[in-house]
Amino acid sequence: MNNNFNDLRAAVVGIGGVGGYIAAMLCKHYEHITLAARGSRKESLSQNGISMKSEIHGSFTAYPEKVTETSDIGAQDIIFICVKGFSVEQVCNELKEQVAANTIIVPVMNGVDNAEKIRKAFPKNIVLDSLIYISAFANEDFSISQVGTIAPLYMGTIVNDERHNAAVHIVNAFLKEAGIDCQIPADIEAETWNKYILNCSQNVITAYYDCDTGHIRENPERTAQFETLMDEAWSVAKAKNINVTQADIDELMRKFRYVFPATSTTSLQRDFHDGKPTELDMFSGYIIKEADRLNVPVPLTKELYTQLVKRI
Ligand SMILES: NC(=O)C1=CN([C@@H]2O[C@H](COP(=O)(O)OP(=O)(O)OC[C@H]3O[C@@H](n4cnc5c(N)ncnc54)[C@H](OP(=O)(O)O)[C@@H]3O)[C@@H](O)[C@H]2O)C=CC1
Ligand SMILES: CC(C)(CO)C(=O)C(=O)O
């Protein structure tokens, strides 16, 4: 691995909301950035560059070194995978011939088993663990919008060895130098589950009622369901010995009650609303699978999952 960041070669796979944000920031700062996209998105990005309207970083257009399909990105030092959960297997297949022995792979996605799936596909590579708190989306014209005043990316490794820990620090510095708020938490597994518990409650309840956070909050019955979903996902985390504490859950509840804007929606709600493929299986589906394996009751998660599946 070359430690001169200007010489590093990095690719972003999946130029939607999250990948688009990371790609725009990297392209603005570094020379050797490849974007993996397909169809008309690929054509537009190669002709026009990547445009972003960000409430943190302002509006700008930046230009990647190369825009190509995932199966053609070539040798890279770092690959960021920013697709929806249901695309991970396909992306891994497309990357098979592209990943070199020293390539570091960083999924930046929701969910708790994507890094594991990627580790299985690339057992010799360093695959880091990460998550991002952001609200970002790709527009019809393939430009990216990022809303809100913060977008922290948490990164770490559940594989605790020297190689992995060194890689965390390199990728962290690489992202920070490009202006991305990258932080290394003490326990990345707990941090990932923390957000996942929020996704398994807030995303699911907003999708179920097809409404924003304000409409859950102002309704005591829906708020109680939100809390039950949180408790069920937390029970699964505890059964898996993940260190999510009562204080973490209280903090999620505080954010839900007082911090998230009333108009905030979730990715699952938007995907259901728009009739797009969803990450329901990555949220409730995985919780149910693990709950059944570990004998943890999750009745509300199962009920809402069953109802939501009928809408697909
Ligand atoms: N958006 C957000 O604000 C947040 C999202 N997340 C999480 O981040 C992850 C990514 O979400 P998000 O960015 O919203 O997703 P999007 O749907 O906006 O973007 C995913 C992109 O991946 C592309 N893609 C899929 N398969 C391939 C492939 N084989 N090769 C190249 N490109 C591919 C899609 O392209 P195409 O259009 O061609 O299908 C699409 O542009 C998810 O896990 C999500 O839950 C987490 C926090 C917030
Ligand atoms: C914004 C947030 C945190 C909502 O739970 C999210 O991750 C999503 O929409 O997928």
From TrEMBL:
It catalyses: (R)-pantoate + NADP(+) = 2-dehydropantoate + NADPH + H(+). It comes from the Bacteria. Its EC number is 1.1.1.169. Keywords: NADP, Oxidoreductase, Pantothenate biosynthesis. It is an enzyme of class 1 (oxidoreductase). Signal peptide: none annotated. PANTHER family: 2-DEHYDROPANTOATE 2-REDUCTASE, PROBABLE 2-DEHYDROPANTOATE 2-REDUCTASE. This is 2-dehydropantoate 2-reductase. It comes from Gallibacter intestinalis. The lineage of its organism: Bacteria, Bacillati, Bacillota, Clostridia, Eubacteriales.
